[in-house]
Design goal:
Blueprint: E1 2-4, E2 7-10, H1 14-25, E3 30-34, H2 45-48, E4 52-53, H3 60-74, E5 86-87, E6 91-95, H4 98-114, E7 119-121, H5 123-129, E8 140-144, E9 148-150, H6 152-169, E10 173-177, E11 182-188, E12 191-197, E13 204-206, E14 210-212, H7 218-222, E15 231-241, E16 263-266, E17 271-276, E18 279-284, E19 290-292, H8 294-300, H9 311-314, H10 317-325, E20 334-345, E21 351-354, E22 360-364, H11 371-384, H12 406-418, E23 437-438, H13 442-447, E24 450-455, E25 458-464, H14 471-474, H15 491-502, E26 505-508, E27 512-518, H16 522-529, E28 541-547, E29 553-563, E30 566-572, H17 576-586, E31 594-597, E32 602-608, H18 612-619, E33 634-639, E34 642-647, E35 656-662, H19 666-677, E36 683-685, H20 687-696, H21 732-739, E37 745-752, E38 764-767, E39 775-783, E40 788-796, E41 805-810, E42 813-820
Helix pairs in contact: 1-6, 1-11, 3-11, 15-20, 18-19
């Protein structure tokens, strides 16, 4: 017999049950949760995970998800009388190396920026938290009081219980059905219409909305209709130990004795520990990755380990590391060891949101730590179309095509497993795989001694060894860096910055993408999509924003009107999938507009600097004078034998052009420009210089300085919002309200008082003399042209006045800084408009 529901949630683990809880709270009336096994105590990782909730990380969104999860779980009534659903014992991150200790000091500063309570402890103080440890091997630890240990299946049960109660108070219903494997998700004409199951009592479920919370099974369930969930299941070792004499006083029959000491991780050894009454349990990632393909799991319909537990892995180096930290472990043995099963996505982040199939939603690639936060966010998204937090890093629509290939998923998830607890430098590029995508200029870049960084799988220049010869010319303008600050950096970046300002440089802009919108309805659609006026004359480029319905900045971008019914929108390659999805989602469905990604058809170069016009004049017959080619103008010109779209725009803040041309002409155009530039000793410059150049001009970085959690007025982009536009556009009504409200925060430019100070982003900002953080750094770099380190951050309006003294915490030290007016370079636009 067929069933029917408003929404079906697949999976009764913590994410699925938390989703039912939040959807019921948001007014959904008919929610059905199905699981292929038992409800709550099922085959998924919720049931067998050791239960540590670790809310803090260097990632803002992951910390938001983790802190929400910890808070929600702590507020639940216990699921059963004989066991604590949650043990709020805190979390201890133990450092046994100086490098790890320094990273914990940095994380302590990040915690202040994100509003999370943490405490740095000495070895002796660490042992006071967990007395079985050996203080002699501990350099220090970070204590996070909000951490906890839970029984995952009981959390699921408690959430399910409360979801039913919430639904019933609003005349709704939440049902949980076990032993109902999904055979097929029925998709017709691009939309979900139902589910086929192997449950004889419920062979088909009619529904128009499905939320997939099946985690490690997800890819195998979605690829049948073209939705890619790029994750892989991996096994890792966990085992309880025989009782320890130091824990003899803890009664196994007393639920309050189960966990008294904090959950603990010793990350250098890739190991974690938790108390089980009178014994300990330890988990280890310190063994070869045991990958299990979702298709194998789906065929077997269980998450039981595919690989046998290998005692030799645990009893090798991990066992010795455990004994060094907790000496009594030497007198214990493994009890019921097993391989746990966890999901690793290709970038280590959850996968959340609406797929390209109407009505089909995903909330997967989540661990217990982030489960309720993931569920809350997807429920908000399903209910209102928007979320409280900026979800760009977790969206299912973020992936490039190469990231969904089996070869890439296999390589990168193995890397993610091996590096699960690695210290990652903020400027560090992905270690593998590399050379997934190459610039069309690669041969020329490599001849100049390029140092690459991977960006959306694309190898782009960071700096060039060929410019080392200019170090002597600029050595007085480039402060020396040491230690952490010197890693993944070169003074050559400063050389390239200054030579761009003084002379001329050629930049590889392969990282730009182009979304083309054309058709009779294109002008009206662009006016609906964008906050600025888009009905401009052909050949004009407009800087604008896309807004969310609540008035958050979805993206800032440049748009060129190519003809009466055609626009090109220029976005970053790294965000192209998200941006293309946004444009397609809102496009009219009555056939007057077509949306195309034409990025792979065009290459691009940036030609910027005081001598840029002189170089361009040598290779074109077009009049590129200021009078004939105005700022923000766009013209097709000849460069050698190639037709090139030249945009007079400058993210570097210098006179110059973005040049776009067919991909097959990439090398000829480079060679033509390069030869012409030799008269002026033109250099090639990389992304390191590009970033510092844009910061000097106050140009925002999307995803760092600008994102959906802030309005254009807070972001300093209010001038792009034309409230007097006659036509409606996304976010207009919200911005009308926001415009009339006094700002509580705004994005501010600040400079360090000392040239020796440095930051990377994420560091906490404080009022002078206070220990209460008021914000964090969104982006930072040295301004080589002004001789000061520049950074941005959102500050409460009372601290946003120019001249306000602030401080930044960097590796536990405070550095003085000052709020300054922006831009800090070429305030009158004389260089760009020359």
């Amino acid at each position: 017999m067929s069933e029917q529901a408003q929404v079906v949630i697949i999976g009764s683990g913590m994410v699925g049950c938390a989703a039912a809880y939040h959807l019921a709270d948001m007014g959904w009336k008919d929610i059905l949760v199905v699981d292929k096994g038992e409800n709550f105590e099922n085959d998924g990782s919720t049931s067998h995970a050791p239960g540590g909730v670790v809310p803090l990380s260097h990632s803002k969104i992951m910390t938001q998800l983790g802190c929400y999860t910890a808070d929600l779980i702590k507020g639940l009534e216990p699921y059963r009388e004989d066991r604590n659903t949650c043990n709020p014992v805190g979390q201890l991150e133990v450092a046994v190396s100086e490098a790890r200790w320094q990273d914990m000091i940095r994380l302590h500063g990040t915690a202040k920026a994100f509003g999370v309570e943490t405490h740095l402890l000495t070895g002796k103080e660490s042992v006071e938290k967990i007395p079985v440890m050996n203080a002699d091997v501990i350099v220090g630890s970070l204590h996070v009081p909000s951490g906890c240990i839970v029984k995952g299946a009981d959390v699921s049960g408690a959430l399910a219980r409360d979801a039913k109660e919430k639904a019933s108070t609003g005349d709704g219903v939440v049902r949980f059905v076990s032993h109902t494997p999904i055979i097929e998700i029925d998709v017709q004409n691009g939309a979900v219409v139902g589910l086929k199951t192997s449950n004889e009592d419920m062979p088909y479920i009619k529904c128009e909305t499905v939320l997939l919370c099946a985690n490690i099974w997800s890819p195998a369930m979605t690829e049948q209709f073209g939705v890619h969930v790029p994750l892989m299941a991996f096994e890792h070792q966990y085992s309880k130990l025989t009782p320890m004499k130091e824990l003899a006083d803890f009664d196994p029959n007393n639920k309050d004795h189960e966990v008294v000491y904090p959950t603990m991780r010793e990350l250098d050894s890739a190991m974690y520990y938790r108390q089980h009454w009178n014994c300990y349990g330890l988990g280890s990632y310190a063994h070869a990755p045991h990958m299990v393909r979702p298709s194998e799991l789906f065929a077997d319909l269980s998450a039981h380990a595919m690989h046998p537990f290998t005692p030799e892995d645990m009893y090798g180096e991990p066992w010795q590391n455990a004994i060094n930290l907790i000496p009594s472990i030497e007198d214990t043995e493994l009890v019921d060891p097993f391989n746990g099963m966890f999901a690793f996505s290709v970038d280590g982040m959850p996968i959340i949101g609406p797929s390209k199939v109407n009505g089909f939603w995903v909330a997967t690639a989540s661990w217990i730590t982030h489960s309720a936060g993931v569920a809350k966010s997807v429920a908000e998204w399903m209910t209102t179309g928007d979320t409280e937090w900026d979800m760009r890093q977790t969206s299912i629509n973020r992936f490039q095509d190469f990231q969904t290939t089996d070869a890439y998923i296999s390589v990168v998830t193995k890397k993610n497993y091996r590096e699960v607890y690695e210290i990652i430098h903020p400027r560090q590029s992905i270690s593998e795989p590399r050379n997934v995508r190459m610039s069309p200029f690669a041969a020329r870049l490599e001849a100049l001694g390029v140092n690459y960084t991977a960006f959306a799988g694309l190898e782009l220049p960071n700096w060039f060894d060929a410019n080392e010869a200019l170090l002597e010319k600029y050595e007085d303008y480039i402060p020396e860096r040491t230690g952490w600050a010197a890693e993944h950096w070169s003074p050559i970046q400063g050389v390239e910055h200054l030579e761009t300002r003084d002379n001329v440089a050629l930049f590889d802009l392969t990282g730009l993408s182009i979304i083309e919108v054309k058709g009779l309805g294109a002008p009206a659609y662009l006016d609906y999509l964008c906050s600025n006026r888009m009905d401009v004359e052909v050949g004009k480029t407009i800087y604008t924003t896309w807004l969310t319905e609540k008035g958050g900045v979805k993206r800032d971008l440049a748009v060129t009107r190519m003809s009466e019914d055609c626009y090109w929108m220029f976005v970053g390659e790294g965000t192209l999938p998200l941006d293309l999805t946004w444009v397609q989602k809102h496009a009219p469905d009555y056939g007057t507009v077509s949306v195309s990604d034409i990025s792979n058809s065009y290459a691009a170069l940036g030609l910027w600097g005081p001598n840029a016009r002189k170089v361009l004049e040598k290779v074109t017959t077009a009049d590129v004078s200021h009078e004939a080619f105005a700022y923000f103008g766009a013209q097709w010109i000849d460069v050698g034998m190639t037709k090139v779209l030249a945009l007079r725009v400058s993210y570097a803040g210098e006179l110059g052009w973005e040049l776009h041309f067919p991909m097959d002409a990439a090398l000829p155009v480079w060679d033509t420009l390069w030869e012409a530039g030799q008269e002026f000793d033109m250099i090639a410059a990389g992304m390191g210089a590009f970033d510092s150049l844009r910061l000097e001009k106050g140009y925002r970085g999307w995803g760092s300085d600008v994102h959906t959690e802030y309005s254009p007025y807070e972001s300093g982009l209010g001038w792009t919002v034309k409230l007097k536009k006659e036509d409606d556009y996304i976010g207009k009504e919200a911005c009308k309200e926001l415009k009339g409200q006094a700002l509580k925060k705004k994005l501010c430019c600040m400079t360090f008082d000392s040239v020796d100070s440095v930051a990377f982003g994420g560091e906490a900002i404080f009022p002078k003399g206070s220990d209460e953080a008021i914000g964090y750094i969104t982006s930072a770099n040295f301004g080589y042209s002004i001789g000061a380190f520049i950074f941005y951050g959102y500050l409460p309006i009372e601290y946003a006045e120019v001249g306000q003294d602030v401080q930044v915490e960097y590796f536990g030290q405070r550095y003085a800084a000052t709020v300054t007016s922006e831009p800090v370079f070429d305030t009158q636009m004389q260089k760009i408009l020359s």
